[in-house]
Amino acid sequence: MSENGIRIGWIGCGRMGTAMARRLVAAGNDVTVTNRTRSKAEVLGELGAKVVDSPRDLATCDIVFIMVSANADLVEVTSGAQGVLSDPEHAPTIVVDCSTVSTETSASVRESCSSRGAAFLAAPVSGNPKVVSAGQLTLAVSGTRDAFDRVRPYFDQLGQGVTYVGDGEVARLVKICHNMMLGIVTQAMAEITVLAERGGIKRSDWLEFLNNSVMGSTFTRYKSPAFVNLDFKPTFTPTLLRKDFDLGMAAAYKLDVPMPVSALCTEIVKSAIGAGHVDEDFAVLLLEAARGAGLKMEPENIEVDDGLSGVR
Length: 312
Fold this sequence. Notes:
Blueprint: E1 7-11, H1 15-26, E2 30-34, H2 38-45, E3 50-51, E4 63-66, H3 71-79, E5 94-97, H4 103-115, E6 119-122, E7 125-126, H5 129-133, E8 138-142, H6 145-158, E9 161-166, H7 170-198, H8 203-212, H9 218-229, H10 238-255, H11 260-274, H12 285-292
Parallel strand pairs: 1-2, 1-4, 2-3, 4-5, 5-6, 8-9
Antiparallel strand pairs: 7-8
């Protein structure tokens, strides 16, 4: 048991969940983990976490974090037959969902938690396993302020920035807005990079200049290796990006917000998917911009700093 006596449960040991839970284990917390495929959870067991067979086994934990893939998964691990809320005698004090799910699913799970006396925090994240390992994960959190304040020390262990954004499910809209901006910035970066290369400038030189200027950012640095070496190993696919654009445009329609740039980017992402870019990283928008310009790109095959090296 940790020094403060708080028992933490963790559901979901995929690449992202494992990277995040590892930070809580490394910080000396009492962490118990579970995953549909137990062998994936055993990796954390080797680092000091306890491993159990099902979410139901986490019902006596004080705080339970969840990182799963889809709406149905979240419902299953909470109110399913072996869910964390399925024990008739026990339920966590606070359930924290870090997955990317719909507002409707989030609200439904919040209601299920409330019926068992558990507070629920929606806490979607920005980052990927490498960002997590570098200590640069960020989170937007919504729910009661009291629950947020109680979990805040653990949020701080997970990454560099946590923002309380209000009650209910508003954190879900924050995540959608964030991902729409990812797409818009990447499309702009792709178009300008194609213009530079078409004018005789090496991509690596252009991006080095960009990243050293006031227009450079953590994100432009992070995507530079993919742009320079045409390495589109997925961190976030065009298919997932399209889903968030669709959700964002639906929210814009409901809230009567004109979004002409977002609407155009939605169509560009759909076009990239139609061209077969389904399982690659969304940085593949660069190739679609090049195709539109009749430019055949080749990887430069050089080492490029992603801005995360050595950061922990």
